[in-house]
Amino acid sequence: xxxxxxxxxxxxxxxxxxxxxxxxxxxxxxxxxxxxxxxxxxxxxxxxxxxxxxxxxxxxxxxxxxxxxxxxxxxxxxxxxxxxxxxxxxxxxxxxxxxxxxxxxxxxxxxxxxxxxxxxxxxxxxxxxxxxxxxxxxxxxxxxxxxxxxxxxxxxxxxxxxxxxxxxxxxxxxxxxxxxxxxxxxxxxxxxxxxxxxxxxxxxxxxxxxxxxxxxxx
Length: 218
Ligand SMILES: Nc1ncnc2c1ncn2[C@@H]1O[C@H](COP(=O)(O)OP(=O)(O)O)[C@@H](O)[C@H]1O
Ligand SMILES: [Mg+2]
Description:
A five-stranded parallel β-sheet has the order 2-3-1-4-5, with helices on both faces. The chain has helices spanning 19-32, 47-57, 66-90, 101-111, 116-127, 142-156, 168-184, 198-215; strands at residues 7-13, 37-41, 94-98, 134-139, 189-193. It has a single domain, classed as Rossmann fold (3-Layer(aba) Sandwich). The radius of gyration is 16 Å and the shape is globular. It has eight helices and five strands. Helix 2 packs antiparallel against helix 3 (66-90), helix 3 crosses helix 5 and helix 4 (101-111) runs antiparallel to helix 5. The longest helix has 25 residues, at 66-90. Helices cover 56% and strands 13% of the residues.
């Protein structure tokens, strides 16, 4: 729990699993029911963190060693939490975040092999016990996800593809890692089957959110 009056939901999963698409759907749903919503993303989400984002998402896949990459992620996350997320929650807002600390556990912990415990220690050092009230883990076959992500980059011609280019084995470790994370925290995390039409996935998301809020007595 965040210990704050707002609600903090993170969107997790591999590349192209539909996080950014579904965050917009859920934003509409919350706004439609009268909530104040802040949509944010990682790495980034505050002025300083966006500068670090550029270091992390562009350039050669081997640009950073795993430990440096993990520290950069948590440096940007610390800034994002302090400058953006905590203030919004204190104002009673719903914060929807495109990736959060579980992505570090998956990418640097499982993907790069630093181990989940190493990353969870870093998590505690950087932001203590701060974590989402609910984490939606989008699960999708990696080929489908990378195919979708490839189309997205073709459309927007973005250069933020450093992680997409890390290879199939890396992406398989991510998927397995996210599933293990979800299994280890079944109250906070909900696995969403990310295959199928956008509208179908959106209905799964809304159902998971309603169910989780009811269970948390909110
Ligand atoms: N359920 C879906 N079916 C088909 N294409 C999708 C679906 N959800 C998203 N997409 C498309 O796939 C691409 C990647 O989706 P996106 O939401 O950006 O994924 P992520 O943020 O997880 O990387 C986008 O071009 C998006 O329009
Ligand atoms: Mg995205």
